[in-house]
Structure formats: C-alpha cells, structure tokens
C-alpha cells in the first residue's frame, strides 16, 4: 500500500454502510435515493440520527473512528455467514463479483477498527462487537488468500501457455490477478529463454506495437567515411573467420 | 451533490491502467478538478463562519466540514498519483527508446515533453561523465577472470541505418545487408526495432 498507489486509491472508493450517531447538517445527500426512512424530512438537508447511509472507505477514519459521528457495519461479503462459507472452501467463489478489492478493503477495515482510539472504551459495545468481528474476518481473509486459491492461481499462471483463461481470471480479485500476471510473465520469460537463450535481444514493446520509425543516415553520421559494399563484405568475411578461429 | 466528493478527480485514474503505455493527457478535466477544489474551500469557509455557536463550531457542522477538508486532500492525492504514474512511464521509456515515437509524443503535455528531454540530457551527461552508457546496455558473458567476453550477434538490416562502430571499425548498415557485430554495438538499435537480430546463437 502506498500514497501514490492507484489500486489503493480506487480501493478506497468502495462503499460500506454506516449509521449516523448525531444529527449531521448538510449531509442529507448521503441518503440512498430510494430511502424510506420516515424520520427524515425529504426537504431537510440534515441527516438525522440513526439514518443509514453509504460511505466510501476513505471517509471512515475521520467520520467513524477518529470522531464517532457514524457507526460502521461490515458489508455483506464480510458478514459471518459468508465468512463461514469462505472458511469451508473459498476457491470456488467469484470474489470479484463481491468486490474487486476484496482482500485490500477487508484488511483496511480491520486495521482501521483495531487502531481506532475509541475502541479502547469498553462502554462502546457496538465498536467492541465490530472489533471481534474484524478479528475473525482477518483470520478468514488470510486463510483464503494463502490457501487453495493461491495454489490454483499460481498453477494456472505457470501452466496456461497460449490458452484462453479468462473464465478463471474473471473470478479473481485485483490482488490475485496481479499475482497471476507476475506468474504468467515469469513463465513466458522462462519459455522464451529456453527457446532462444538469454542472448536474444528483445525489441522494446512500444516499438513492436507501432510502425518502425525511419532514422535517416544523417542522424547516425553514417555517410561519413562509409566504405563500399564490396569492401564491407570482405571485412565481414575476415571478421567471421577470426571468430571461427577463436571458437 | 454527489455521494463521492472526489468523483471528477477519480475519473483520471481508471484510464491509466487500461492503456498499454499512457492515455492522452487530460487537459480538459484538470480545470474542472481545480474548480472543484475551490468550491470545497469556499464551502469550508462558509460552514466555519455560519456554524459558530458561542464561538465554537456546533457538532452537527463538524462532519460536513471534515468531509470537505478531506476531499481536498484526497483530490491532491489523486492528482499526485496521476502525475507520478505518468512521469514514471516517461522515464522508463528513456531506457527503452531514447527518442519518443511521434504517435506517443502526442499523448504527452508540453511540460511532460520538456521533462523527457531534460531527463534524457541528464542521463546522457551523466553517462558521458562516468564513461558508462545507461542507454545502451553493454551485456556480455563474464569470463572466469572477471573480464567480459565479447558476444557476437548477427543482424539483418532492412533499411539503411548509417553505421556503427564495432571495436574501432566502422560497419556500414546498408539496406538488405547482414553483419556479425558485437552485441553491445547494436543492442540499442535492436531494442528500438531499427535492425533485426537473426536467431543464430554463437
């Protein structure tokens, strides 16, 4: 995780459900558009206490944990029932459908909850329960990530050759997909090395995908003192014989 | 008002990952993002001024104020990530091809092109000062005594490319010719696609 990491920034745009603990002025726009909460006046701009809203992960530190304006609840894909299913055998699930950043968002939630300063107050029952849930969630996430899914991902990435494996990769989360791509690149590199040896110079990928640019001889100063073709052939022949003698 | 305060800036990032190199520099979106930051700033001032009760900010105003402030910081982070990603791709390109292909050049802003030229000059200057070329990889096989054995490759020249100097001897690269030259003399040209290495091992 890093400040400049694009995946981290995109991951923090994922939403979780939160409940307001106080009346919040000018936050009525956070209400879901199909909200049926009768306590709220539709013309009011104030979000009332106990209203449910959806907040992105990047707002949680200052809205839910540092200052207890909201209480956060875990998303459905981190709930107790889904955790038990994952614990039983997670390699058949399409985790990408649940969340493209399934692991990262889970780890972030767990770290925010555990490092929250308010969690040290034992009277805060809701947060204490949340902390217990996050402890269980953390162990399930770790077990799922390094378990049979990882083995299957590495197996696919090292052995897929030229086959179309999108039916498998479309079920992977972003983190698993990154591992898959690393394994696939390593596997392809190994195959290339076996076929052509480490001595074959690779053309830059950017040049391969575009038309070749024309470099005029003037750029290289090639016209100055260049000998005739016949003399080159003679010299090349001499060089080749020298090489053969050395070998 | 959008639920995601940083929705305009967030549009910058997904396109980065989808392109093979870089997308077109977003000259149209950036003024909108700057305007959004200004709006957040003005709103913060208004809330702070109007939310005062007995010289302290009322609790109900604190969440919205925090949201606006943190949105500004998040937009800053998004912009910096965007620039950082592009700059890294541009500097990586210097080592693959010292000249940016014309069709790639149009994807960059004026400042990025200037950065690329300055970076290229800096690397060349440093390479000259220490006598090692970073832009032309000088590979080779290490001998047992630590010396580097010369490694020869055969290249096929499709179009005339001037000439290269191989161990003090000038080798002309006429169109349709083939040559045995040292790897380090032509490695850069092969990587740029100017000549083609033939699949023959020595």
UniProtKB/TrEMBL annotation, chain A:
Record-linked InterPro entries: GINS_bundle-like_dom_sf (IPR036224), GINS_Psf3 (IPR010492), GINS_Psf3_sf (IPR038437)
Compositional bias of kind Basic and acidic residues: 212-226, 236-247
CC per GO annotation: GINS complex
Span list, region Disordered: 212-247
Record-level GO BP terms: mitotic DNA replication initiation
Protein name from the UniProt record: DNA replication complex GINS protein PSF3
TrEMBL record, chain B:
Protein species of origin: Triparma strigata
GINS subunit domain ranges (all copies): 60-130
Lineage top rank: taxon: Eukaryota
Keyword Nucleus attached: yes
Keyword Nucleus: yes
Name the record gives this protein: GINS subunit domain-containing protein
Record family assignment: Belongs to the GINS1/PSF1 family.
Compartment(s) of residence: Nucleus
GO cellular component, one term: GINS complex
Gene Ontology BP terms: DNA strand elongation involved in mitotic DNA replication
Gene3D superfamilies: 1.20.58.1030
Principal cellular location given in the protein's record: nucleus
